[in-house]
């Protein structure tokens, strides 16, 4: 059976739901495929919190009344304010509430593959259905893009897995299974530092191995004096500094920078940094080995021996029961298995990212990418929930205009 629909959204996380809500708000009939908020429900350990502040943690809706604060009020919860911390569980429930209200028809069906067909696309669904559409929005977030260095991945013949000796931080929904175990956490970003805190609090013996230096943000502070209070303050969802301000408020200008500059900024801006509220749960609680780069890993019975290069250039070894790689994500379109090989070969790239237009459209007409894959075009804003208004607004305008 073949169905025809003007637009398809693949993914039902913050970006997918926001784009779908805007498309349907513009009267564009849209089918949405995915597991609602699955990355937040199943791929982040219980007890984690968002790094972003409450006012930077709302999905984008085509009408008022659907912010995180609105959800809290609807549930008779005290709305979070200022620098309050947003728990993952609360944010997940908010996303599900948003979906039920604005995108009720999400289908928990998977796309086996899709390719060009005439002036549109033909999608093969896991149900056996074929679907024809003119517009496809890829909004799969970080799914399938987790990165584990080769020297660690090689320890597990079948690849990193939560029940093995090496895993990626995204493969866990609960870290309590490591109670009493020695765990090396690789990385220096929010995921590494918060995972280490959760492991310690669950009774594990965690150690952080940071190639660079583990750092934490500074707590929000009142102006130092009356004169400072009169000066304009850099209100930015990505951080209260003028250095970050352009990346959130002028992301539409980011594509005009040279490609190499964009790729460098995506790597460096808002790089590895723990939230200020995490410091007390880590410093003095969990050993942090700064400047320890992992150079090798090998099985040793039911454990792993890690070889590291120390700050003085010497080598050291450490034996642990498990290695948790909190080593982030890398965009690699080959790992998005639903992109047909022929279609993938037609995509122009910016580094490993798809090259996108001002409306998030790729070099293949009608194919859009939002979220992390759009970071090389629109900057680090695309790694955060607060990037959903830009993506949803531009994609929905382009698709609705083409549909007319």
Order of helices and strands: EHEHHHEEEHEEHEHHHHEEEEEHEEEHH
Under CATH, the homologous superfamily of the largest domain reads FAD/NAD(P)-binding domain
Which CATH C-level class of the largest domain is it? Alpha Beta
Please give the domain count: 2
Give the overall average pLDDT.
91
| Rounded radius of gyration (Å) | 22 Å
Helix content: 25-40%
CATH topology of the largest domain: FAD/NAD(P)-binding domain
Query: Structural class of the secondary elements?
Result: alpha/beta
**Terminal-residue CA separation:** 26 Å
Strand content: 15-25%
Taking pLDDT < 50 over at least 5 consecutive residues as the criterion, the unreliable ranges are none
CATH-defined architecture of the largest domain: 3-Layer(bba) Sandwich
Summarize the biggest pleated sheet.
6 strands, mixed
How would you describe the shape? globular
Count of extended strands: 16
Number of helices: 13
